[in-house]
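Quick question, first post here. What does this chain look like in 3D?
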Amino acid sequence: MKPLIANLPYPSTEYLVKDVRSGQIISFAYATLKSELTAILQYTYHHFYFGDINKDYADTLMGIAIAEMKHLDILGEAMLKLGVDPKFIQCPNTRTYFSTSTVSQSKTPQKMLMDDIGGELEAIATYKKMLFILENEQVEAIIQRIIIDEELHLEKLKEMLKTYSD
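> Answer (accepted):
Ran it through. Tokens below.
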């Protein structure tokens, strides 16, 4: 199964140097309650339910989950190089570990897709807010590239939802 990603390279994390502020900023997208990790789990869960409803849609959801795994990998690697521990926690600078409490447990096609669309809209908004406060151009480029994928996911999910709106 292939990830659903734009046909563009990701900026390298190879030359990132310690910049704790930038690492803390991007940590909100890594593995908090509304993060790439949450998205991976939600798309995987919805993939299982779509398996009996529409195999192509199930595969698309898993393709998005794989793309989110790529994002998680890039963010974790960047955080480490920026000097921030890539822990799976609910909120940066806490000791409360990740919880699946915000993963959508929807089981009907329309609700699953609406929840996934909401997640993408929130991710895009969060990443755009990061761009306003980041001062590290290398990290900004990484975030901009991830936004491109998130926008692709949003458009694909909207197309899928149209089939259930008639």
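The chain has one domain: 20-162.
The mean pLDDT is 94.
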